[in-house]
Amino acid sequence: MRIELTQLLDELGLGGRVRIALEDWAGAGLSASRRNNNLAENPIQPPKTSQAIDFQWRCPNFGVCSGYWPDLANRRERVNSRPIATHAGSPVPAVAGHSRDDELVALVALARSQLLSSSELSAAVEYYGSAVKLVELAQRGELASARGQHSLPTMDAALLGQARREVAQWQAESLQVRTLLDDDYPPNLRSIHNRPAWMFFEGTWNSDRDSRAVAVVGSRKASPDGVQRARRLSRELVEAEFTVVSGMARGIDTAAHIAAIQAGGRTVAVMGTGINVRYPKENAKLALGIVDAGSCLVSSFLPQQPPTKWTFPVRNVVMSGLCLATAVVEAGETSGAKMQAEAALLHGRSVFLPSSLVHAHAWAQHLVTVGMHGSCAVEVGSTQDIVRRLELDVSLAPALSV
């Protein structure tokens, strides 16, 4: 079995040099990276392991494609025919005969069971095209983890009943939720390897306009100059018909959202909490203003999830995935904005850092001069530089069918 990428790359117009990264989640320490000018002559062989593998390849101007080799305990037939590959705009269709509600209930039950990590769950659901199928395997004790365990415990049947009640409550509250099995799952987000299994929405999500999105992020303790730069950048992005995405935090995020609304544009707040939780509390009015302006709040967490130390890094990953690029206005060494810049480079997205930030912080200089994950951030001297480069990136991007 081997990964045949040539046909896919030809279809996308991306031939040439491609970076392949394989990670063995079984803990064998396997890590490989190859650059080939001719993939047809140099096929990449999958790692020799009995464990499930989550694999990815990263393409310039495109992002990360991914796939999944499952390993089911006590199963004689190995899944070794052809690895699945998913990319932006190509959802795996759900298995016929299962309703959307059944799939959503199954997804919630699987997440509550914690049998699989978030990335494992997303990869496995896309591989099988059905969360219901995964529940059936879990109930029979035939689901294997990609983390070195031979097989996972049988899933508690009571979780399905709990999940069904949760979904019924969401429907009663008219909560909007889209899963990987839905055609209207955000296409930009679908293209990253660590995409969430679902997203909650409050307000109006415009898939066409909000796919042309740029994240404007920075410090919660923003300087007056940083606030002014964030406002100016947001206004200019709106004028160029980009959606401004930020995290609804204090400081730079708040300034970016408000400026986008005042400019008559669209803004999306990616929350570090559940969709029903407002944090910080003083931004509850801002959240209402975003929805009233015809824009949107989004969250990858269950509706009542409170803010925690781990939810905000996850939020930054999701924000990067939703956007074409991330612009960091100002940020310190331990800032979530820095983490998002690193995630964006991993996702194959553009990262823009102002000269003032690059000159002030070693981490920013490192991302510009050395880079990370095979990509470098771009130092910019003005907000106009960012908009010009974004327009160029969009015009050069390969046409993808959605």
Poorly predicted residue ranges: 1-96
- Tell me the span between the first and last alpha carbons: 29 Å
Broad CATH class of the largest domain? Alpha Beta
The helix/strand order is HEEEEHHHHEHEHEHEHEHEHEHEHHEH
Quickly give the CATH architecture of the largest domain.
3-Layer(aba) Sandwich
Polypeptide structure, described:
The protein is 38% helix and 16% strand. Residues 1-96 have low confidence and may be disordered. It has helices spanning 6-12, 100-113, 118-128, 131-139, 158-172, 187-190, 207-210, 224-239, 252-262, 284-292, 311-322, 336-346, 355-360, 362-369, 383-396; strands at residues 19-23, 31-35, 53-59, 63-69, 176-179, 198-203, 213-217, 243-246, 267-270, 296-299, 325-328, 350-354, 378-380. The protein is built from 15 helices and 13 strands. Helix 8 (224-239) runs parallel beside helix 9 (252-262) and helix 8 runs parallel beside helix 15 (383-396). With 402 residues, it is of the alpha/beta class. The longest helix has 16 residues, at 224-239. It has three domains: 6-69; 100-179, no CATH class; 204-396, Rossmann fold (3-Layer(aba) Sandwich), CATH 3.40.50.450. Strands 5-6-10-9-8-7-11-12-13 form a nine-stranded mixed sheet, with helices on both faces.
What's a quick, concise take on this entry?
Helices cover 38% and strands 16% of the residues.
Key attributes of the depicted protein:
4-stranded antiparallel β-sheet; alpha/beta; Rossmann fold; 38% helix; 402 residues; 3 domains; disordered N terminus
